[in-house]
Design a protein that fits this description.
Number of strands: 24
Strand content: 15-25%
Structural class: alpha+beta
Helix content: 40-55%
Distance between the termini: 23 Å
Radius of gyration: 30 Å
Length: 569
């Protein structure tokens, strides 16, 4: 992935070259350069705008009015989420999704949520969104007797940042507040309309032509894993276990637990399973780490994660000797892993500060191994003798107070908080994603699918899902099949589905973002015009302007905090 340092270097180089070009007067008058920003103005399309405004005048007025109501409602929802997000980044900056400046740039291959493989579809969706948005402004300008001087685009270091319509200032000031409101809201309403049409087109193509491919998709083969040694690759499908065809994820996981010996890959290649327990997650502070492969427990062979669990449950000592793939032995504690969320009750007795963790080996001389066994021993008792690992690494026994309703600790459900895998792969949730890309049986179900669809490019942020959905890119197409169409049309239909997907995603986000009532956004203009309409007979224009500026300033500060606080902290 392209890093933000490369992006910054390109912007600086472009700015220097653009400044030289401007000083040499090598650009037309319709071009203007300010630092890395290039603005291109044109009168192309003004006649078409005039024609559309006059021909469908009776449609555009109610359309713009509907847009005003939709924009105001959306603005309230947007402000709510902005405020909630600000509290989130301040209280838990490490939990937010923005990891750097590149996550704020709508450039495929730079933004980690916008893959380069879907670049053409993403840029086309963005261009469609910007064009229909500004067309809405332009047409409603003419409907409201506001002259349009020019249309144009704004580029930042040759990257499309937006489009614009330049109204004539004199006629804009003379227009009624209702006409101004309709004009500012029309672009947002157009984006919502394109969003809805794109969703319908996507649902039709996917539901009629596409279905999940047989087997289990492999989204990612983890490093140094058994799957890597078995020559399984990202994008493969596991279509059989022990020559039995895979029809569901549940069946696949069940077969792996039952002494599986072979896997069938992509319905063709058969590979032998390397029996072992590959470590995917383990507490820090010990020699065991992710990507290690456990071969033995106290000298007993381990062929699968289920065998690892069985053998660790038989460990009576506080530590077990784990033999790794490389032959090294690791002394690892075997017990219930407990983490303090706040220093109260049990945590105080164990001298654990907030965020600190330890292993509990026994309660009242009864051996415990995981969260459930620890909770079972804690139930129906007010105090207990526990044996655990203290801060100094010593095994100690102490009487502690126990409250069965105490929520001051998080207890891992795994033995010793150790997570392992037989193969070391991430499974691609092809069927789960497919269900979000097709119509549901109810209105509520369809609304849930639309919301889920909007989150698909960010799906990996959801616990338990390791992959995003970038559209039906070549990598993803192996997880799906298209039927009922000629072979030569498959690529074009997948491309069309991708365009619908990213056009819907881009238009929705453009609409929501533009509704936020702050500077330079349509929401800010709508806030000013609606405030004047509602308050002009009650307070002075000066005070209205002051109130509007304060609200815009607060929202701008909130947006800045969302973007930059996680980076600073």
């Amino acid at each position: 992935m392209i890093t933000w340092e490369y992006v910054l270097g390109f912007i600086l180089l472009y700015t220097v070259l653009a400044t030289i070009v401007q000083k040499k007067d090598w650009i037309p008058d319709s071009f203007s350069i300010w630092g890395p920003i290039l603005t291109i103005r044109s009168e192309i399309g003004l006649d078409t705008i005039e024609s559309l405004a006059n021909r469908y005048y009776k449609f555009w007025v109610p359309w713009g009015t509907l847009g005003v109501f939709a924009s105001i409602v959306t603005a309230f929802v947007g402000v709510f989420f902005v405020v909630v997000s600000v509290f989130g980044v301040i209280m838990q900056p490490n939990e937010v999704t923005i990891q750097g400046p590149t996550d704020m740039i709508v450039i495929p291959g730079v933004n980690r949520f916008l893959p380069l493989s879907a670049g053409p579809e993403i840029l086309l969706g963005l261009i469609i969104g910007m064009v229909v948005h500004e067309m809405g402004h332009a047409i409603l300008c003419r409907v409201g007797d506001i002259n349009v001087k020019s249309t144009g685009v704004i580029l930042g270091a040759l990257i499309p940042l937006g489009a614009f319509v330049e109204p004539d200032e004199e006629s804009s000031e003379k227009a009624t507040l209702k006409a101004q409101l309709r004009m500012y809201a029309a672009g947002i309403m157009n984006n919502f309309a394109i969003f809805a049409l794109s969703i319908i087109g996507l649902f039709l193509i996917v539901s009629l032509l596409i279905s999940p491919a047989p087997g289990i998709g492999v989204s990612n083969v983890l490093g140094d894993s058994p799957a890597e040694r078995m020559d399984i690759s990202d994008g493969d499908r596991i279509t059989g276990v022990n020559n039995e065809t895979i029809t569901s994820q549940e069946q696949f996981l069940s077969l792996l637990e039952d002494d599986a010996n072979t896997l069938t890959i992509n319905e063709e290649k058969v590979v032998n399973i390397e029996g072992s327990a590959y470590v995917t997650k383990v507490p820090d502070g010990f020699d065991l780490k992710p990507k290690d492969t456990i071969r033995e427990v106290n000298g007993n062979r381990v062929n699968s994660p289920s065998e690892l669990r069985t053998k660790m449950l038989s460990v009576e000592d506080n530590y077990a000797t784990l033999t790794l793939e490389n032959g090294n032995d690791v002394e690892y504690p075997v017990g219930a892993y407990i983490t303090s969320e706040k220093r109260t009750g049990l945590m105080e007795d164990m001298n654990l500060s907030t965020g600190e963790s330890t292993f509990v080996f026994s309660v009242n001389d009864v051996r415990v191994y995981d969260g459930q066994s620890l909770i079972n021993e804690f139930n129906n008792t007010e105090s207990a003798n526990i044996t655990y690992l203290d801060k100094n690494g010593d095994v100690v026994t102490k009487t502690v107070s126990v409250d069965s309703g105490d929520d001051s600790a998080v207890i891992s459900s795994n033995i010793s908080s150790l997570s392992t895998s037989l193969l070391g792969v991430n499974i691609y949730p092809a069927e789960q994603f497919y269900n979000l890309l097709t119509p549901a049986d109810s209105i509520i179900g369809n609304l849930q699918n639309v919301l889920g669809l909007l989150l698909l490019p960010l799906a990996s942020l959801t616990p338990g899902i390791e992959s995003n959905f970038p559209g039906f890119t070549p990598y993803i197409q192996n997880f799906y099949v298209m039927s009922g169409v000629p072979e030569f049309s498959v690529g074009g239909l997948y491309f069309t589905a991708n365009v619908f997907f990213w056009t819907a995603w881009m238009n929705f986000n453009l609409a929501i973002f533009n509704c936020i009532p702050t500077f330079a956004l349509d929401g800010g203009h709508i806030l000013r015009a609606s405030s004047e309409m509602a308050l002009q007979n009650h307070i002075s224009d000066v005070n209205i302007s002051r109130i509007v500026k304060i609200i815009k300033g607060i929202l701008l500060a909130c947006l800045s905090a969302i973007f930059f606080v996680p980076i600073i902290l």
